[in-house]
Amino acid sequence: MRPKELTPLPNELASEAASLFRGLVNNELFGVYVIQDGLFVYVNPRLAEIFSYSQEALCGKKGPTDLTDPVDRDMAALEINRRVQGEVVGSHYTFKGLRKDGSSLDVEVFGTRTEFRGRPAIAGLLLDASARCEAERAMSKQLNLIAQLLETIPNPVLYKDAQGRYLGCNKAFEAFMGYAREDMIGKTVYDISPREVAEVHDHMDQLIFKTPGIQSYEGVATHRDGSRRDVMFYKAPFNNADGSVAGLVTVIVDITERKRAEELIWHQANYDSLTKLPNRRLFYDRLAQSLRMAHRGSLQLALLFIDLDRFKEVNDSLGHNVGDELLAEAARRIGACVRESDTVARLGGDEFTVILPDLADTDDAERVVLSILDALSAPFALGNDIAYVSASIGVTLYPRDADNAEALLKNADQAMYAAKAEGRNGFSYFTPSLQARAVDRLRIGNDLRQALPSGQLEVYYQPILDLHSGQIVKAEALLRWHHPERGMVSPAVFIPLAEELGLINEIGDWVFHQAAHMAALWHRANAALPATQRFPVQVAVNKSPRQFSSACDEGVWIDYLKGIGVPPSCVAVEITEGLLLDERPEIKARLMNFRDAGMQISLDDFGTGYSAMAYLKRFEIDVLKIDQSFVRDLMTDPGDLAISEAIIAMAHKLGIAVVAEGIESEEQRKLLADAGCDFGQGYLFSRPVPAEQFWRQLNLGSYPESV
Ligand code: C2E
Ligand code: MG
Ligand code: MG
After folding, report:
1. Residue pair 405/288 in contact by the 8 Å Cβ criterion
2. Which CATH number belongs to the domain containing residue 204 in this structure?
3. Which of the two ends of the chain, N or C, has the fewest CB atoms closer than 10 A to its terminal CB?
4. Closest ligand 1 atom, CA of 605?
5. Residue 618 and residue 506 share a domain
6. Whose Cα sits closest to atom 43 in ligand 1?
7. Prediction pTM value
């Protein structure tokens, strides 16, 4: 190949070519040389200086052999040859040179084929690159060391240059990502990741190049096989000796397990483990969030408060496992009635809430409510048992009823109570009058705390007659509250309140002591009568299930009776069916304590609850009281008469005496007496009356001044 035509100098410089060349060859940085036929035909002073020769001494020397360290001689000869052949144009190479004294140096040459004295030659520049090569060697040694160190790090480590090209990685990285080092080197993140992922990393890298120190961010690492891990990327730039950014090192920490654990903890903290529904905490979050959205979009929202009716009875009678199953199933049924975007939460126990955000029409809320009621009233098949519950639902609306979460929840709760009070298996909207009623309840509750110490409570007595002889044989102690402003408050109102406020034990004990004193009076007066005229009267005291949940008082009660000289058979305890559903063995044991001491146990309001005959036998009930709801319709509802007759017959078979409650008419009395009922209680005979009045009904003479 012919060498390229030399470009002539511009005219104005042609005359100065000699001085130009002189200036060039006398520079103090580059060596300048011309080799022809393998020998130096020209070297400038700097080149001679680099190799510690004189200019003259070098001319005629063989470049590749005489000035080249033996290790690079072949390479240098080859490079020169290639240039002679015209293969290489404008490229440079580095080799180990040899000084006159035998010491070696690093030399960088930029040689190219040219023409000298009309014949082919190689001319070029030559640079002492010792300092730079030394630095490069040191650097590569260091990189080598670093690469080894990186292998000792268990985390995946990767480093890349300032252009984002991978320089290397450790084995942990290879294993973690599924790429061999060789596959990675020279590539960028764009070559191994989807574009959108690569762009994120690239963007972060650009920031990190500008920020000294370690930066971290969370992300996802995708293995070559497509599997993904949650990771933290820790990245830091590293610099060249001159302070410019040389690249970036990335350390990857796999946080998949930690995230999983965190998610689990979050889930446990926010979800109910039984029903898998959001719990109270998450419910509040969601409600607050829904309210914010409703506020922003001027939307309506409904909050439902759902309480299962009679759940406690299922739980107590069929056991907690079955109760749990029922709750889980109830949760599923409620969930099936709402949209994906609605929230169903379990507040605890048998209480659920539903948030219906973005409500177009209040009718929509009502449709959901009705479908929930429907779903929950269907029988629950739980293992071998079938249970029936229903629900009472309170509904409140944002922004109509309230504008904040607490108020809405309170409203929905109050509305739910109203639905319960209206006979369960129904729903009620929140209304301001409900609010007023709730406030009223609160006030009555506060007043109730004062009722006993202020002497506002009084025990009334209602006679219970032998239906055949017409004799008064028992009396039921019924509590009355003379409220200073409200007048007489019904125990149906304040007993549940006393239970709720934890006042029932104190009040119940007081009623018992009053009744015991009454019994003592009757007992003493009776004992004073001639033997033929004596008639024992037993007083029955109502005892709420709550009183059985607290400290044992049977021993105290029995000792008290003995202390005041009253045989325990003169006092009976009235309990409700709910208590018998309580499976705890101590309940039976406590009832037995009364029985063993000679006190009778009456089962009140029979027929309104579970009415399970098995309990009558198991708990050795002495007396059964047919609820007044059966007696009320005795004349008009033949079914009620049949039920009453059946109850009486069955009780008698079990050796249990029967009292009919709420007898208001002679017809009722007669029907019950004919059915074989033993005792009767009701307005027909007497309303509950103060102690003194009752005393007069007994014809026991004047009422003793002191008890
Ligand atoms: P209960 O034990 O079933 O008492 C019978 C209720 O029926 C009494 O209501 C009585 O006044 C009412 N009653 C009696 N005869 C008739 C009648 O012919 N017609 C009608 N319509 N009602 C009649 P009261 O006194 O309002 O008591 C309501 C409930 O409050 C009681 O039902 C009992 O469960 C509870 N209670 C009353 N005093 C106490 C007490 O000292 N302790 C506890 N734990 N509960 C009590
Ligand atoms: Mg009673
Ligand atoms: Mg009753």
Report:
1. yes
2. 3.30.450.20
3. N
4. 3
5. yes
6. 542
7. 0.56
Helix/strand/coil (H/E/C) assignment for every residue in 470-499: CCEEEEEEEEEEEECCCEEECHHHHHHHHH
Task: Report the C-alpha gap between 545 and 543 in whole angstroms.
Answer: 7
Q: Which structural domain, as residue segments, surrounds residue 124?
A: 11-133
Shortest-distance atom of ligand 1 to CA 462: 14
Cβ 21 under 6 angstroms from ligand 1:
no
Spatial contact of 678 and 466, defined as CB atoms under 8 Å apart:
yes
Determine the Cα–Cα distance for residues 377 and 644; give it in Å rounded to an integer. Answer: 27
Contact 97, 11 (CB under 8 A): no
Distance (angstroms) between ligand 1 centre and the Cα of 661 equals 9
Is 3 a member of any domain?
A: no
- Strand locations in 282-375 (E): 300-309, 343-348, 351-359
Q: Are 648 and 676 in contact (CB under 8 A)?
A: yes
**Residue 669 and residue 586 in one domain:** yes
Same-domain status, 563 and 690:
yes
Domain-terminating residue out of 430, 463, 487: 430
Nearest to 480 by CA among 502, 501, 455: 455
Provide CB contacts within 8 A for 318, sequence distance 6+.
382, 385, 387
CA angle 57, 58, 60 (to 5 degrees): 100
577 ligand 1 Cβ < 6 A: no
In the prediction, which pLDDT does 219 show? 92
Residues 404, 420: Cα–Cα separation, whole Å? 24
Reported as a single tens digit per residue, the pLDDT across 84-107 is 888 877 678 999 999 999 999 999
Radius of gyration for the chain, computed over Cα atoms and rounded to the nearest angstrom? 51
Reported as a pLDDT band with limits 50, 70 and 90, residue 1 is very low
Residue 142 lies in a domain: no
Pocket flag, ligand 1, residue 629 (CB < 6 Å): no
Pocket perturbation via mutation, ligand 1, pick of 661, 683, 687 by most ligand atoms within 8 A of CB: 661
What residues have a C-beta under 5 A from ligand 2, the ion? 542, 574, 604
